[in-house]
């Protein structure tokens, strides 16, 4: 049985947005992929983001979710690193 691909829109903020110089990416993943895999793929492309891996929170369709939450086709994913400010 072949696994079908799903497409998700990833909104980038803070360190992620700076690393990619974009506010949004559209990525394809195999069906059954957890949301944390989005973070892993971005870190694979921009290794300087690795320091944020364990402290990034995930949102799908404006709801905070656990890293193991499975992606669905058409989901909007948000990666939220800690934001420092004054």
Automatic annotation (TrEMBL):
Organism superkingdom: Bacteria
SUPFAM superfamilies for the chain: MoaD/ThiS
Protein family: Belongs to the MoaD family.
Keyword Nucleotide-binding among UniProt keywords: yes
Species annotation: Nostoc piscinale CENA21
A GO term, aspect molecular function: nucleotide binding
InterPro entries per record: Beta-grasp_dom_sf (IPR012675), MOCS2A (IPR044672), Mopterin_synth/thiamin_S_b (IPR016155), ThiS/MoaD-like (IPR003749)
Alphabetized CDD domains for the sequence: Ubl_MoaD
Assigned GO CC terms: molybdopterin adenylyltransferase complex
Keyword Nucleotide-binding: yes
PANTHER family with a match to the protein in the record: MOLYBDOPTERIN SYNTHASE SULFUR CARRIER SUBUNIT (PTHR33359:SF1)
BP-aspect Gene Ontology terms: Mo-molybdopterin cofactor biosynthetic process
Pfam families reported for this sequence: ThiS
Name the UniProt record assigns to this protein: Molybdopterin synthase sulfur carrier subunit
Keywords assigned: Nucleotide-binding
């Amino acid at each position: 049985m072949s696994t079908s691909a799903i497409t998700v829109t990833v909104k980038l903020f803070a360190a992620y947005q700076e690393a990619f110089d974009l506010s949004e990416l559209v990525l394809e993943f195999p069906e059954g992929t957890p949301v944390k895999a989005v973070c892993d793929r971005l870190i694979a492309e921009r290794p300087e983001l690795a320091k944020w891996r364990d402290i990034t929170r995930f949102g799908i369709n404006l709801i905070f979710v656990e890293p193991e939450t499975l992606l669905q086709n058409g989901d909007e994913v948000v990666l939220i690193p800690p934001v420092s400010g004054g």
